[in-house]
Design goal:
Helices cover 30% and strands 26% of the residues. With 333 residues, the chain is an alpha+beta fold. The strands form three sheets. It has a seven-stranded mixed β-sheet with strand order 9-11-6-12-10-13-14. Strands 1-2-5-3-4 form a five-stranded mixed β-sheet. Strands 7-8 form a two-stranded antiparallel ribbon. It is found in: Cytoplasm. Its main location: cytoplasm.
Length: 333
Amino acid sequence: MNRKNLTYAESGVDIQQEESTIKALTSKFVYRRQGLGSALMDVGHYAGLIDFGEYALAMTTDGVGSKVLIANEMKKWNTVGIDCIAMNVNDLLATGAEPVAFVDYLALESHSEIFAEQIGEGLVKGAQISKMSIVGGETATLPEIIRGFDLAGACLGMVKKEEIITGENIRPGDAIVGIPSSGVHSNGYTLVRKIMEASDYSYHDPFPFDTSRTIGDVLLEPTRIYMEVLDVIRKMEVHGLAHITGSGLLKLRRITDFGFDIHDPIESSDIFKFLQKEGNVDDLEMYKTFNMGMGFVIVVPREMAEMAAEMVNGKVVGSICEDGIKVRDLVIE
């Protein structure tokens, strides 16, 4: 069957429009506290950092997104709590901060104890992996606003101020170490769902690459939490860190104006091959939407690359260049 080439924008999420909205919103953030608690960097990195004496406190907020709709379809909610924590913790790690505490926000159309228990199961699993406490949260019943549920949260971390990693030390010639993802993670699911709607498959069908699992189960694989990155930071010089989420490899622009020449990428997972085929999605759109098998990036001096890759079970995928983002011959823009 010939299908139209599906794109993230046509499915309902236009990254450029989203960036314009963010710019309009943050342009109004003109007030800055002074002294203890003052902001240490502008809005736009992975986490916000504030002065707390010897340390900086790092803060993030994020949610699971439309992945929750697949959880509802599968009636399996015990993994999305891991996603919620992972999306926040991985952003903290991208500044070199260690996570210490988390609060969640659960908005509901209606209540179910079984559902709530499964949400809690995932949250506590994510907290255990991240070695942090869940210290509170909020549950809101919003039947006139919410259809189903929405799960989000905020994470607090800390890092000594002299150990903050922003990407400012990245230079051409540095090595790029990629760490594999566990799957689609928690981004691009609006496009994922459009692909599934256009395909001949349902979420309950066996996954063609592994028939012991359903497609829904593969898509609900929780986001990997990259705590091992802290070990690398403690043992060697690290110039930059990036969490690959929505907008795919375009996220690399958050940490440097230099370019990324990824000439030996991590092979994309089977789920991406499936989605690309079923949605007739071109390579560029895939790399601008999904992590494509690489969920986190560490930039280190060339001489430290192999050691860093071994520590995180990753691989050296390329090097920093003067400008642009390339995967082999594909230019991401």
